[in-house]
Automatic annotation (TrEMBL):
UniProt-recorded Gene Ontology molecular function terms: oxidoreductase activity
Keywords: Oxidoreductase
Protein known as: SDR family NAD(P)-dependent oxidoreductase
Transmembrane segments: none
Entry annotated with the keyword Iron: no
EC nos: 1.1.1.-
Length: 243
């Protein structure tokens, strides 16, 4: 059976935990060759490498901090060396903190914006020379971008910025048939510790009565990465259970 992403090469940032891990495994499971990264070494990266090994020898997990432009340069260079070109780029790496706006420091503002938004610009600009015509770029955004959440003004600004960046990039890169889209998850179950009362509150807000699963976000990314989404460009796909 021919897999839907067979023959495609993918680069995914922040791919060893949660949504990123599910995206990496979904793309690899669909036949793509995947290079991903983690800011730190450890069991999540090692266990992902073992899972990918079972799917083929062409996948790789590197250590890189996407807040550092030199690390992004190294990631793209490694992808070019291994694969020769890229068909899929997914910016998933992100950081978040909960800080009242009146207490938000300039340092924390830049930390969150650098990883969630500036890294997306750096990643695509560096990858552009090795992106094949018809490639798909997917940014992992957030439902909060359009609704706002207290204590997360910096995070919300970054995710809202991704939508604007995506819309403009989609118009500029369309001549090469390169598509750029956002997948915006709602509340998702990951390994992160979330108080039970917060989970219960979200469950009441979501018509489906539950939080999302990383695999459900990954399925949306896999769809946008494939040829079945060849006329979807500049869009934000909310995967949020209708919250």
């Amino acid at each position: 059976m021919t897999l839907e992403l067979s023959g495609k090469n993918a680069l995914v940032t922040g791919g060893t935990r949660g949504i990123g891990r599910a995206v990496v495994l979904a793309l690899a499971g669909a036949g793509a060759r995947v290079l991903t990264c983690s800011r730190s070494a450890g069991e999540p990266a090692e266990s992902l490498q073992r899972e990918l090994k079972a799917l083929g020898d062409e996948h790789a997990v590197l250590q890189a901090d996407v807040a550092r432009s030199e690390d992004i340069d190294r990631l793209v260079a490694e992808a070019a060396s291994r694969f020769g070109g890229l068909d899929v780029v997914v910016h998933n790496a992100g950081v978040i903190s909960h800080v009242p706006f009146a207490e938000l420091t300039e340092q924390e503002w830049h930390r969150v914006l650098d990883v969630n938004l500036t890294a997306a610009y750096l990643l695509v600009s560096r990858a552009l020379p090795v992106l094949r015509d018809g490639a798909s770029i997917v940014h992992i955004g957030s439902k909060v971008a359009t609704v706002g959440v207290p204590l997360r003004s910096h995070y919300t600004a970054a995710k809202a910025g991704l939508i604007g960046l995506t819309r403009s990039m989609a118009k500029e890169l369309g001549g090469r048939r390169i598509r750029v889209n956002v997948v915006a998850p709602g509340p998702v179950e990951t390994e992160a510790e979330v108080p039970a009362e917060v989970v219960a509150r979200y469950q009441k807000m979501i018509p489906l009565g539950r939080l999302g699963r990383p695999e459900e976000i990954a399925a949306a990314v896999r769809f946008l990465a494939g040829d079945g989404a060849s006329f979807i460009n500049g869009e934000t796909l909310n995967v949020d259970g209708g919250i």
